[in-house]
Design a protein that fits this description.
Elements: H1 3-16, H2 19-82, H3 85-93, H4 96-113, E1 116-122, E2 128-135, E3 138-141, H5 154-159, E4 167-169, E5 173-174, E6 176-177, E7 180-181, E8 187-196, E9 202-211, H6 212-219, E10 231-234, E11 239-241, H7 259-262, H8 264-272, E12 275-280, E13 283-290, E14 297-300, E15 313-314, E16 321-328, H9 336-377, H10 379-387, E17 392-397, E18 402-405, H11 407-413, H12 428-431, H13 445-452, E19 456-464, E20 470-482, E21 485-495, H14 497-565, H15 570-600, E22 609-611, H16 613-620, H17 622-630, E23 635-638, E24 646-648, H18 650-667, E25 673-682, E26 686-695, H19 729-739, E27 744-748, E28 754-763
Parallel strand pairs: 4-14, 23-25
Antiparallel strand pairs: 1-2, 1-9, 2-3, 4-8, 5-8, 6-7, 8-9, 10-11, 10-16, 12-13, 13-16, 14-15, 17-18, 17-21, 19-20, 20-21, 22-24, 25-26, 26-28, 27-28
Helix pairs in contact: 1-9, 2-9, 3-4, 14-15, 15-19, 18-19
């Protein structure tokens, strides 16, 4: 078809379009499309902003967890220095050579750690006796004539008031040398503990100056998804780390600008909520407090003056920093422009489709109007065709008087040949009204079409015959127009009695089928509910596993980042060791999860072998002995009195025993661990053996004992617990013991350690 013929066809189609209907339908569809697009865009934008706000809060919480964990590590370092062998010998004997040995040990310590600016021993008068500084990456021993008296500094005065074993953490401030703030700024956190000689006399303090820049760097790591850095404030609202460096360390420089003075509404909210979010001035503020103090660790308000004591002491609840991020709302949705473009394109496409749909409807209506007009024009020529039609056809004029009725209509309405075929009886119109009515033409479908000129289609109605009997019908009523004026109407109807009968039969079959479907649906619903229940349990498992894997993964990320920033040195080798330790821990977690999954699924198949129990215990503890040696711990084994050989699955038996010993190493810090195996009963076929693991840890409170051996639960299930784990080890051991015909349990008391045990029934007779 040529282009000219296509254009001609389009023009002819356009002449048939009902333009008023086109405008009405398109206007309505355009309004609905625009409103829907705007509402959807707003909902998606709000959802994106809310999701980004949650991510910003999670980012701060991750950083806080890392900082708290690190502070615990450096607290351990000050205890290590205070308990150094040569320092303790010096305090007991006052022999100068011991102090020289201690000084050399501190040089090694500073070089290995590389995060401390100074490590010192200050005697009871406040005079520095030993001081090792980190100078350009290397430890530097300070000569005796350069040592200073720190007797009037707040950190010395506050530490000297503590009891033996207690730790003092100073406020986060700047380093002061010779009574002046050192330039350039050197942020410091001082960790100290009092020293005592064997007679209980105070002999000064051991103090470590931790480089605060290292902690500040941990707030904002490379690759952070947010474009805004996390800021850090002290409890008084002074900036320790700010997006604007000029705001930092104001309290050390005599300035009064704080968050409280610059943003009082934000500060007031922070005072009432330890963590939260709010929007002010188009900026999303997210904050959370960091409480680094542990039990037995204290602090004070400190002093901004080079000389002078603190104004007040601080407990764990009073000493905190505030991690803060402030993000402009526009920064939270970097893809906002792309979203606007996408919705704009979709809106245009939807309008085009609405126009096409409206055009099709208007064209259809226009064609129908033209067809109706043509029907009126050709009525005389087509009456003989209509008379031969199988459907009833009746035409009326504008006043509702019948002017035409075909033979099929006469037959269905009960008019016989004796009633005359040429005349159209006026009363026949009453038969074309609903059978349940009074037979009045007023209000009938014909009357309504003559009034409003609308086409009508009725699929469920009934007419009455001449003798008054009713029959079901379907009919249409079309207006007849000339020059825009209604000149009559045509009704086309059919008797649907037979079809209704067939539909009734089909309905009965359908009802029977629906009953069958409902029965099957109920069965499927039960199966679906069971599957959903299983899925909930699976989801809880995966969520707990994901949470616990986060800590070692953070360690992996931190160590990898450090390696990327520097060339390989002894320090990086040490960090690589830590990285591998985290990886091994992650592998252990995954292994435990998979083991428990297999056990719960009932897929465990015991691989029975003949073995010697005493030799088995030695082999099972081989790797754990190395771990104990690294902790300076000892594993004591008592397997005397056992008879061998026996038959059982050594792999799962070793896993059950290893879970107990590994827990004892992780949850008790000192003392030896005793592993026992003894025979409880024996016959010709089997023996019942009890394995015990006893530690000298803190013990478990009676109210916490019921929590043991539950899936994915520990006594401390908080995200900041000191010792990690998924809580599957004990559950796995109990399951293995049960499969091997035994039980598992624990007896413990606070302060007296814990004894974990399990029993297994092993075969004693070898069947050939």
């Amino acid at each position: 078809m040529s282009a000219e013929s296509n254009i001609s066809s389009f023009r002819s189609q356009s002449q048939l379009v009902d333009r008023s209907l086109l405008v009405m339908v398109f206007g309505l569809l355009a309004f609905l499309v625009s409103a829907g697009a705007a509402l959807t865009f707003k909902i998606e934008s709000d959802s994106s902003l809310a999701r980004d706000a949650v991510q910003e809060k999670a980012r701060i919480e991750r950083r806080i967890g890392s900082i708290i964990s690190f502070v615990r590590d450096i607290v351990s370092d000050v205890r290590l220095v205070a308990n150094a062998t040569h320092l303790q010998r010096f305090l007991a004997s006052n022999v100068p050579s011991e102090l020289e040995h201690f000084e050399r040990d501190i040089e090694v310590f500073v070089a290995a750690k590389s995060i401390y600016d100074q490590v010192r021993y200050i005697d009871e008068s406040g005079m520095e006796r030993v001081r090792v500084d980190m100078d350009q990456g290397r430890p530097l021993k300070i000569a005796q004539d350069q040592l200073q008296n720190k007797g009037q500094r707040y950190f010395f005065l506050d530490t000297m008031t503590l009891a033996q074993g207690e730790i003092y953490i100073s406020p986060f401030d700047l380093n002061v040398e010779a009574g002046k703030v050192e330039m350039p700024f050197r942020p410091m956190i001082r960790l100290a503990t009092p020293l005592f000689d064997p007679a209980g006399q105070r002999r000064g303090i051991a103090i470590l100056n931790y480089r605060g820049n290292d902690l500040l760097a941990r707030l904002n790591r490379a690759g952070d998804a947010s474009v805004e850095p996390i800021e850090l404030l002290n409890r008084d609202g002074f900036w320790l780390k700010s997006r604007y460096p000029a705001d930092e360390w104001g309290f050390m420089l005599g300035r009064t600008e704080t968050l409280a003075t610059m943003h009082p509404d934000i500060w007031q909210r922070m005072q009432s909520e330890a963590s939260g979010q709010m929007t002010s001035g188009g900026t999303l503020w997210t904050w959370s407090r960091i409480y680094p103090l542990q039990q037995g660790v204290y602090s004070s308000s400190g002093s901004a003056e080079p000389v002078g004591g603190s104004q007040a002491s601080l407990t764990a609840g009073d000493y905190y920093w505030i991690a803060l991020s402030r993000v402009e709302r526009g920064m939270l949705s970097p893809n906002e422009l792309a979203r606007v473009v996408r919705y704009g394109v979709l809106w245009c496409v939807a309008l085009m489709l609405a126009w096409c749909f409206s055009w099709a409807i208007a064209l259809r209506q226009g064609r129908l109007n033209v067809a109706t007009a043509q029907l009126i024009e050709t009525r005389s020529q087509s009456e003989h065709i209509l008379s031969a039609a199988g459907e009833g056809i009746c035409g009326v004029d504008a006043a509702g008087h019948p002017v035409f009725i075909n033979a099929a209509a006469r037959r269905m309405l009960g008019w016989t040949e004796e009633d005359g075929q040429l005349d159209v009886p006026p009363e026949i119109v009453a038969c074309l009204t609903p059978a349940g009515g009074d037979g009045s033409f007023q209000g009938s479908a014909l009357d309504k079409t003559l009034r409003d000129g609308s086409y009508r289609q009725v699929l469920d109605d009934s007419f009455r015959r001449k003798d008054g009997t009713a029959f079901p019908v379907e009919y249409t009523v079309s207006p007849i127009k000339r020059d825009g004026q209604i000149t009559g109407a045509v009704m086309v109807f059919r008797d649907v009695s037979e079809r209704r009968r067939i539909e009734g039969e089909l309905a009965r079959y359908r009802d029977h089928l629906e009953a069958e479907v409902q029965s099957r649906t109920a069965e499927l619903r039960l199966a679906k509910e069971a599957a959903e229940t299983a899925n909930v349990a699976k989801s809880a498992f995966l969520a707990n596993m994901s949470h616990e894997m986060r800590t070692p993964l953070h360690q992996v990320g931190a160590m990898a980042e450090l390696i990327l920033l520097e060339s390989l040195t002894p320090k990086q080798t040490d960090r690589l060791d830590k990285l591998m330790g985290a990886c091994n821990r992650l592998e252990s977690i995954i292994s435990s999860i998979l083991s428990l999954t297999w056990l719960e699924a009932g897929k465990l198949e015991l691989q029975e072998t003949v073995f010697d129990v005493r030799q088995f215990v030695d082999e099972a503890l081989a790797n754990l002995r190395e771990k104990a040696a690294l902790q300076h711990r000892r594993l004591e084994v008592d397997v005397s009195g056992l008879q061998s050989p026996v038959i059982g699955d050594t792999e799962y038996l070793a896993r059950a025993l290893g879970n107990y010993v590994d827990n004892a190493l992780r949850f008790s810090e000192t003392g030896s661990i005793v592993i026992r195996a003894k025979e409880l009963e024996r016959d010709e076929q089997s023996t019942l053996i009890r394995f015990e693991v006893e530690d000298q840890g803190e013990g478990i409170a009676a109210e916490d004992l019921p929590k043991l051996f539950r899936h994915f639960e520990q006594i401390d299930n908080s995200s900041t617990r000191h010792v990690g784990g998924l809580g599957v080890g004990l559950a796995t051991t109990r399951k293995i013991a049960s499969i091997m015909g035994g039980e598992a349990g624990c007896s413990s008391e606070r302060g007296k350690g814990s004894l974990f045990w399990f029993t297994v029934r092993l075969k004693t007779r070898i069947d050939h």
